[in-house]
Request: fold
Amino acid sequence: MSLKTGDKIPAFKGVTADGLISAKDLKGSNAVIYFYPKDNTPGCTIEACAFRDNLPKFKKMNAKVYGVSKDDLKSHDKFTQKYELPFTLISDEDGSICEAFGTWVEKNLYGKKYMGIERATYLIDEKGVIRHIWRKVKARGHAEEVLDEVKKLK
Amino acid sequence: MKLFSTTRKEKGFLAIGFLIAAVIVGYGAWSDMHRKDDAQARPGSYNRIYYVGNEGDLEHLPDDSYPVAALAGSFTAKGGTKGGADSFAPSDIKPVNFPQREADLFYRLDGIPVQLGPFYDALDKSIDKWHSANNFFNTVYLQDTDPKDSLEDLSNLCAAVKNHLQHDYSINVFIDRDALAAQKDPKVFLGNMTKNVWTIIFDAETAQKPGETLAQTILALNAYESPFLVAVHEKPDVAKVLQAIHGKTKYFMGFLLMEPETAKAHEEKKP
Reply:
């Protein structure tokens, strides 16, 4: 069953450079969880850099930003260092977080179907309730549209 | 004038001849006006290149003869960190022979190489490997993923690589639409760049503006008047796109079909 606005954030566990992270760690502040296909690819870099550049504005709104992909921690570390990303990247190597959020989807290319990460973002409020969902996200300009929605939470 | 002095019978033949000629010319003109291009005549048909990012992609390739751009490897400038060393990591794709198609090589860079020597070495070695697998290829794809790099530096890199490879290979390169639009004269810039580059590639994921359809993006890119491909990460609604751009895109060369390389996606294919 796919998540919708008003649902509680699903339970999940992931790995970050600072250790394990779970759904309960997000409570107490607004959270932006964005799913992206792969570190160091053009769209993902543009999206990550835009969240980086807007992070002070997210912080003002008491919102934390988390990026999720299936890359390992080593890849996340390189990506974080290269682009000086000041927010947490979660490694979801087993795909369980993507499954829980419904971002592990069937894709169609070359006329064949297979599974892959859909670029999607979830805005979660301080109580752990999903307040907005973006699917099939376009990397450019996305951080700004998320910020606009975060402002409406106040 | 002999024409006016011929017999009544000869005039009749001439008249019939003129009539037939007029019918042929008229039909030609009519069919030109109502001619459908190949894409419309054969729905779903369009120029395409398949990007192969890892070994698992090979099994997805359809049974046709369109070219393949295989990821040869990724070049890391400065080791990806301050003070690090440049390095090249070959992809996991073993050079295989593609008997029915052109197999070109794709290089991803996370920045403009500081030193070109190691970059050339990596290029030459991987080109040799793919050649030894009896592949026919003539194009090298370059994709710099660092948005901080300037278009001028990228253009200079293309010129240097073209010079290094001499006339043996063409270069196709990804560029950023916004960076191009920020040039003083984008058309002139591209005109100069394409002296060393065969085809420019725009990635739809970054080139498409919010609210813009893919067809609108293609039409906007066409205005730069340089041959270009559009890289897409999911198969577009080809019929719809082609219908919208029909007759308006002199410079659009087709799609580069790219899976966004979700880690391990191919291990978990649906049956």
Summary: The first strand of chain B starts at residue 48 and ends at 52. The beta strands of chain B are 48-52, 68-76, 87-90, 103-109, 139-144, 170-174, 199-203, 228-232, 252-257. Chain B touches chain A through 37 residues (CB under 8 Å).
